Amino acid sequence: MRPPPGFRPGMPQQPSPQQQQRPPQPGMPMSPPFVNAAAPMYKQQQPQSGMAGTFSGSPVPRPRTPPALDGTPHSVPGSPPLASQSPTISAASSAPQSPITEQHHRTTRKRMYPEQIAKAYMDQPNTAAGPMDSFSSPAFQSQQQQQQQQSSPVPTMTAQGYPGTQPQQQQQFQQPIGNQVNQLAGQFGGMNLANAQVAKSIPLLGAAPFIADLNAPASPIILPQNSSITNSPYANAEESYKCCTVNAIPSNESVLKKSKLPLALVLAPYRTSDGDGSQVPVIADSVIARCRRCRTYINPFVTFVEGGQRWKCNLCFLLNDVPAAFDYDAQTQQPVDRWKRAELNYSCVEYVAPTEYMVRPPQAPAYVFVIDVSYSAVQSGMVATAARTILDSLDRIPDEQKRTQVGFITVDSSLHFYNMNSALPEPQMLVVSELEDVFLPTPSSLLVNLSDSKEVIQGFLEKLPDMFKETANVNNALGTALQAAFKIVSPYGGKIVCLQSTLPNMGTGALKVREDPKVIGTAKETPLLNAGSPFYKSFAVDCSRSQVSCDMLIFGGQYADVATLGCLPRFTGGQTYYYPAFHASRTEDATKFAHEFSELLAEQIGLEAVLRVRASRNLRMSAFHGNFFIRSTDLLALPNVPRNQNYVIEVAIEDELRGPTACFQTALLHTTCYGERRIRVVTLCLPVTNSVPELVSSINARAVVSYLANKAIERGLTSKLEDARDAVVNKTIDILGVYKSQVLGIGKGSSSPQLTVPDHLKLLPLLALSLIKHDAISQTSRISTDARSNAINLIRTMPLQLLVPYLYPNLYALHSMSPEAGEISENGVVFPTPLNLTTERLEPHGCYLLENGQDIFIWIGRGVVPQLCVDLFGVKSYDQLHSGKMTLPVVDTPINRKTNLLIGKIREMRRGNYYPAVVTVKEDSDPSLRLWFLSHLVEDRSDNVMSYQQFLQHLKDRVSYYEQKKGGIKDF
C-alpha cells in the first residue's frame, strides 16, 4: 500500500514534484567533494594579459586594445552580477579609449616591471594600484545575452604583496542583427514543444569558457509525480554511482536516431564512501524480494497492489508476492514498518547474500607478489622500496578474520620460490631454472597464512633488498613467473601483484622492443598500442575463469610495453600503475610509488564478483567498456572489484517503451575482503520522452565525455588515432547540430554568426577539445607509446570525479591568492579561483600551480620577484631554483604554508590511490619539461591542433551544414 500523504519514513521528506533536483544521498554530494561550492565569495585578483584576435566569421569586433580573458567568471545572460563583477559601469568609462591612453598603459606596465613591483612587495605589501578606467561600447540588449571581454590589465599588488593585476570592467560588444533573427526563429521553432523545458542559449564565440561550471550539477532528473513509493530524497541514484548520458530516455529507436545523442550508462558501483555517515545501507535479515521473471530487486520505484500483498515490477511489470517476512523483524520478533525498509528508500543498498548465492564458501583474500629482481629493478631501487612498503603495509592488508594468505615469487632468468611455513625460523628459497614447463617445487607452504607466518614474512622482506644487490642478470621471465603464480593461487582465487622493471625477454610471453620513433603520431602507431603477444590476453582469460585478478606496477627506465602488460589488469578487473624513469634515489619517485602501492594493498576490494545491469523492457545493454571479462551477453566477470573503478555501458532500444519512466538496476554480487557474500544494488529511474528538445535539455555533459573517451579509445585501437579524434569532433557537431535544428528551429543549411549552445552544454566543446588534445589520442610525436598506453588505461577506468580534471586540469595563481585561499574554512580547504588554460593567463612575474590528479606542476616566470622565491621555495633568487621533480620545502611564510596545504588537499581530495608528484617548471627550463607543462594549456593552439576559439569556429561552420553530410562524416 502507498503511505499516506505527508508520511515521513524516519528520514527527510521528499521534495515536491515541481522541485527539479533531489538532495544528495549521504556521502553522495551533488558535486565532487573537493569543490568548495559553499565557500564564501572573495575578491578575485588574478593575472591577465591580452587575448588573441578573433577569427574570421566571428561576430565580435576586434577592439583597439586586445581584451584580456582572465579567470573572472562571465555572467550568464539574465542572471544577477557576480560578487566579483561590478554591477554598473560609470558614465566616464563609456568614452572610447584613445591611442594615447593605450600607449600610456603600455608604458606604465613597462615602467612598473620589475623594479616597482619588487619595491612594492618589499615596502608596501598591503597597497594595491587604484582602479583603472575601462572603456566599453554600447551593448545591444538582445534577450540580455552579452559577450564579456576585459581590457588590458595593469600590474598591481595583492593582499600578500606579490604582483598581480587589478580586475577591469567588462567590455561589451554589439550582437549582430542576424543573431536576433536566429534567436527569434528559435523562439518560434520551440513553440510546438510539448512541455519541454528548453535551456537558455549561450553564445560561445569570442568569450573564454566559464570553467567554474566544470563541476556544476548535471541537468536535474525530472520524474513524474509519485514515481517513487516513499518520500525518501535518496530514492534515485546519485551521479557518482550511476548516471546516464541523457537524463531522459527516448521512447523509441527513431527518436534516439533523430536526436543523434549517445545513450549509455556510466557506473562506479563500488566507489568509496565520503565519511562515516555515507555508508551504503546493509540489509542483513536475508529477506530479498526479487521479480520472478526478470529477477529485479525490489526498489523505490515498484508499486504495491492488492492491499500491499503484491508488488508490481517496475522493469517488466509482473506482479510478485511480497515475502511474508518483509514486514517482520526476525530479531525482535515484532512487526515493522515496511516503509522504513532501506530497499524502499535508498537507490543504493547492499544485501547480505544467503547460501543460494554461493557456489562455494566465500574465498579468503590471497596475494601472490611477483617481483622483478633483474639488474635494472635492483639498481633503480624498486626492489628495496617495494620490500619496505610491503613490510610497512602488512598490518593494512585486509585480514580481519585472520584468513588472508600471501606468497612471493622473485624472477630474473630463473624463478625463486619461498617456503614461509610458520614452523621455519627463516624462509627457504627454492630456485627453478626450467622455464618451458613450469612446476612448483613444493606443493604447500608457498601460500601461507599472513597472521601465522607474519614473523617469517617480515624476516624475508627485511633481507630481500640485499639478496640480489650484486646481481648482473639483465633477463626476465615474467610469463613463466605468472604461470607459476597462477598455479599457486588458482585453487582458491585471489590476486597476483606484479612489479615489473625489465621488459620480459625469456620464456613464455617474451617481448621485443617495438617502439619506433618514426611511427609515433602517425597511423602506423596503432599496432604499438595493442598487445604485442597473445599470451597475456589468453592468460588473463584463464585467470578470470579461476577468480584470479592481476595488478601491474610497471617501472619504465626504458621501453616497458605498457600496452601488452596492461592486458592482464584489463581482462581481470585489476589496475595498472606506470612509473616512467623511476629511481628511488629521488625522494619524489620513492614517495609516490610507496604511497600508491601501500594504498593498493590496503584497498578493501570485492572478490569473485559478477556484475549485471537490468533495464526496463525493450532496453538492452549493447556494449561494455572497462576492466572486466564479458562472460555472457550481459554478465561481466570481475575476479577483483577495485574501489572507484569506472565502467561505461551502451544501451540500445529494441521497441517502444511502455510507461512514463524507464529504470536501470545494477547488481554487483561479490565477496567482501572480510569474507561476507553481498549484493550491491544501484537503481536509476529516468523519465521517458518522445521529444528531441527534452532529450537535448537533459544531456549530462560529463557522462557524454566519459562515453566519448571510451569510444575514442576503442576506435583508436581498432582503426587509427586520427579516426578517433574525428569521431569525437563529429559527435560533438551532431549534438550541437541537433540543438540548432530541433530546439532553436533554425533550418537546414542556415548559417549564423554565432555558435549558440544551451547553458548546460556550454563546456562540452571545451571538454571535447581537451579530449582530442589529451595524451591518449592526441596528434603528437613527443609522447612515447608507453605514456600513451598509460593514459589510455587511466581514461578507461577513471570515475567522473577524476576524469574531468585529468582532461582539463586546474590552474591557480599562487602569487595573487586572495587572503582566504589556502586556508581551512568550515567547508574545508578554500582553493583559489581556477584560471583558464591558456598562456594569456601566465604573467612573466607570476607563479602558478597546475594539477590534473596525476601530476602537480609549479610554473615560475622568469620575472618572478626574488622575495617570492625566498618565501615559497626558500632560495634567494630565480636562478637558484631547480626544475624537475621536487618536494616543496616547509618555510614559515603564509604563501608556503598555503601552497603546501593546497598540495596536500589535492593529493587526498579525490577518490583513487593516486599520489601526484610536484614538478617545478621554470620559464626558461629544459625545453621538454617546458613543453610538458604547456601541453596542458588546451585552449592554446599546439601541434597543428586548433585553439579553443578556432575549434569553436570550426564547430560553427560544420554545424551550419551538418545535415548535408548524409553519411559523409564518420562518428560513433
From TrEMBL:
<keyword id="KW-0813">Transport</keyword>
<dbReference type="InterPro" id="IPR006895">
    <property type="entry name" value="Znf_Sec23_Sec24"/>
</dbReference>
<dbReference type="GO" id="GO:0005789">
    <property type="term" value="C:endoplasmic reticulum membrane"/>
</dbReference>
<dbReference type="InterPro" id="IPR007123">
    <property type="entry name" value="Gelsolin-like_dom"/>
</dbReference>
<dbReference type="InterPro" id="IPR041742">
    <property type="entry name" value="Sec24-like_trunk_dom"/>
</dbReference>
<feature type="compositionally biased region" description="Pro residues">
    <location>
        <begin position="1"/>
        <end position="15"/>
    </location>
</feature>
<feature type="region of interest" description="Disordered">
    <location>
        <begin position="1"/>
        <end position="110"/>
    </location>
</feature>
<dbReference type="GO" id="GO:0030127">
    <property type="term" value="C:COPII vesicle coat"/>
</dbReference>
<dbReference type="GO" id="GO:0070971">
    <property type="term" value="C:endoplasmic reticulum exit site"/>
</dbReference>
<feature type="compositionally biased region" description="Polar residues">
    <location>
        <begin position="43"/>
        <end position="57"/>
    </location>
</feature>
<dbReference type="InterPro" id="IPR006896">
    <property type="entry name" value="Sec23/24_trunk_dom"/>
</dbReference>
<dbReference type="Pfam" id="PF04815">
    <property type="entry name" value="Sec23_helical"/>
</dbReference>
<dbReference type="InterPro" id="IPR029006">
    <property type="entry name" value="ADF-H/Gelsolin-like_dom_sf"/>
</dbReference>
<feature type="region of interest" description="Disordered">
    <location>
        <begin position="125"/>
        <end position="176"/>
    </location>
</feature>
<feature type="compositionally biased region" description="Pro residues">
    <location>
        <begin position="23"/>
        <end position="32"/>
    </location>
</feature>
<dbReference type="Pfam" id="PF00626">
    <property type="entry name" value="Gelsolin"/>
</dbReference>
<feature type="compositionally biased region" description="Low complexity">
    <location>
        <begin position="160"/>
        <end position="176"/>
    </location>
</feature>
<dbReference type="GO" id="GO:0000149">
    <property type="term" value="F:SNARE binding"/>
</dbReference>
<keyword id="KW-0333">Golgi apparatus</keyword>
<dbReference type="GO" id="GO:0008270">
    <property type="term" value="F:zinc ion binding"/>
</dbReference>
<dbReference type="InterPro" id="IPR036175">
    <property type="entry name" value="Sec23/24_helical_dom_sf"/>
</dbReference>
<feature type="domain" description="Sec23/Sec24 trunk">
    <location>
        <begin position="362"/>
        <end position="599"/>
    </location>
</feature>
<comment type="similarity">
    <text>Belongs to the SEC23/SEC24 family. SEC24 subfamily.</text>
</comment>
<dbReference type="InterPro" id="IPR012990">
    <property type="entry name" value="Beta-sandwich_Sec23_24"/>
</dbReference>
<feature type="compositionally biased region" description="Low complexity">
    <location>
        <begin position="141"/>
        <end position="152"/>
    </location>
</feature>
<keyword id="KW-0963">Cytoplasm</keyword>
<dbReference type="GO" id="GO:0006886">
    <property type="term" value="P:intracellular protein transport"/>
</dbReference>
<feature type="domain" description="Zinc finger Sec23/Sec24-type">
    <location>
        <begin position="288"/>
        <end position="325"/>
    </location>
</feature>
<feature type="domain" description="Gelsolin-like">
    <location>
        <begin position="832"/>
        <end position="900"/>
    </location>
</feature>
<protein>
    <submittedName>
        <fullName>Sec23/Sec24 trunk domain-containing protein</fullName>
    </submittedName>
</protein>
<keyword id="KW-0653">Protein transport</keyword>
<dbReference type="Pfam" id="PF04810">
    <property type="entry name" value="zf-Sec23_Sec24"/>
</dbReference>
<dbReference type="InterPro" id="IPR050550">
    <property type="entry name" value="SEC23_SEC24_subfamily"/>
</dbReference>
<dbReference type="InterPro" id="IPR036180">
    <property type="entry name" value="Gelsolin-like_dom_sf"/>
</dbReference>
<dbReference type="Pfam" id="PF04811">
    <property type="entry name" value="Sec23_trunk"/>
</dbReference>
<dbReference type="InterPro" id="IPR036174">
    <property type="entry name" value="Znf_Sec23_Sec24_sf"/>
</dbReference>
<dbReference type="GO" id="GO:0000139">
    <property type="term" value="C:Golgi membrane"/>
</dbReference>
<dbReference type="Pfam" id="PF08033">
    <property type="entry name" value="Sec23_BS"/>
</dbReference>
<keyword id="KW-0472">Membrane</keyword>
<dbReference type="InterPro" id="IPR036465">
    <property type="entry name" value="vWFA_dom_sf"/>
</dbReference>
<keyword id="KW-0256">Endoplasmic reticulum</keyword>
<feature type="domain" description="Sec23/Sec24 helical">
    <location>
        <begin position="702"/>
        <end position="804"/>
    </location>
</feature>
